[in-house]
Fold this sequence. Notes:
The chain is of the alpha+beta class. It has helices spanning 22-25, 29-40, 73-86; strands spanning 2-6, 9-12, 16-21, 44-46, 54-60, 63-69. The strands form two sheets. Strands 3-5-6-4 form a four-stranded mixed β-sheet. It has a two-stranded antiparallel sheet with strand order 1-2.
Amino acid sequence: MYLHLGKGTVVPEETVVGIFDLDITSQSHLTRRFLAAAEKAGEVINAAEDIPKSFLVCAEDGKHTVYLSQMSCATLLKRSAERLDSSF
């Protein structure tokens, strides 16, 4: 299954390592440092048309990618849970 992040961007759900609230987590210097390093390494994809509310870390084939999304964590988790519920 795939998870739609916005702006036509979808990711395979099995690659999602975590979904994080950008407002809360960016208060930590460790998160800011992680996001800055990912951006510098070219590992950030902006899937937000407006100000991003969340970010996802996805891992596939030993490589990680950070996606910025304008959708809230709750919306992304709900979308993911709806797909899981419908597959049973």
